[in-house]
Amino acid sequence: MSDVTYPAELEIAPLTKPVNAAVTVPGSKSITNRALALAALAVNQKPTLRGVLRSEDTEVMIECLRRLGFQVSVDWSKNTVTVTSDSARLIPANAADLFVANSGTTVRFLTAMVSLGEGRYRFDGVPRMRERPLEDLLESLRQLGVNAHSEGGNGCPPVVIETTGWRGSEVTVRGTTSSQYLSGLMMAAAFASRPVTIRVEGGLVSEPYVVMTEQMVDEWVGNMSRPSAGVFQTTPGPHRSVKEYAIEPDASAASYFWAAAAVAGGRVTVTGLNRKSLQGDVRFVDVLAQMGCRIEESDNGITVHGGHLRGVDVDMNDISDTVMTLGAVACFAEGATTIRNVGHIRHKETDRIAALATELRKLGAEVEERDDGLTIVPRALKGCAVDTYNDHRMAMSLALVGLRVPGVVIRNPGCVAKTYPGFWQDLERLRA
């Protein structure tokens, strides 16, 4: 784990002048954990990943891969990881007890991945992970002939996968709770020994993350097609040769610094990201543009210039990891901001709709909470201690309010280690 240490509480000092900064954020968590899973499945290629994010979530994934029998070589001084295996088996270990902490990508990607193997695999995590749903994925694996069940019978971890490999070629998966179920199945299907057709049942949340998975599977394997909407097909065959893979900076992490320009005024450039990014969250800058910011793109990155902010009404289903970032910005806008179609974020590290509403009210905003979103009406803000619910995105988002409002104290600031251990140091660089 990263050697960064954190206080129990952290007060955010307001900025005394508009920002003028260029920021480099660490590698994408979403891409890193997908790349680690793909590198393990393509292990005979001995691929090297560059720009790997070092965080709790990614170190949990790496430790799980080791327990599954993969050799994972890490050089954090260069942010590189190489995955190898001495086994002819797709999953080297035939039994493993895996601790996934509160990493949704780890449990969902690896649950699908180990089902390709032969053996018994058990997944468990922290108390909050034992409340996070997995039943839709377990049901899909059962369709493929896998014995996949929740020990508590509630569809949440601990879960057990007992498998001799996939015995079916057709599977449906529900996509209304998490797109990660589909992404896990897509990556596993790409390495299956038989043709596989995956059909999405009902709606699909966070579709840009599915597009990310599809593009990465194409880069690594090249055997996936989408013959019609909501249908994915793979065929066995020779895979592409991937010796090195570069991971983009994290667009969700970038959202906090773009939002800092909106909140404090001035300009912030996040380097290494552009519109061609695999990550849908780069589109957060479009929401800031609707609110009155000016967006500038160059070969160096994307720059947000702060402006007079106005409230917006926005469907954030596709960029739901930035809901809380927008919630902080909305506190400084003229008029109400309404966020819609994000009911699925109630199943994240915390119930993010309820938590955001509670903490913004503490700070003085007027908030109307709905099943699928909330409306934020700016009011006179006041400093106070805010709770983070052990949710990294709550901590990073609420800190933005403290850039303008004195007395904002973040409780449990160390929860940022889940995806961005160096966040507080990078936020402090905005004062330079």
Count of spatially separate domains? 2
Looking at the structure, the CATH topology of the largest domain is: UDP-n-acetylglucosamine1-carboxyvinyl-transferase, Chain
Structural class: alpha/beta
Q: Which of globular, elongated, flat, extended, rod-shaped describes the shape?
A: globular
- Helix percent reads 25-40%
From the coordinates shown, what is the CATH architecture of the largest domain?
Alpha-beta prism
Put simply, the count of helices is: 12
Low-confidence stretches: none
Strand proportion: 25-35%
Strand order of the largest sheet: 2-15-17-16
Name of the level-1 CATH class of the largest domain: Alpha Beta
Q: Mind summarizing the main beta sheet?
A: 4 strands, mixed
Return Rg in Å.
Answer: 21 Å
Q: Tell me the number of strands.
A: 23
CA-CA gap between termini: 29 Å
Mean pLDDT, all residues: 96
Name the CATH homologous superfamily of the largest domain.
Enolpyruvate transferase domain
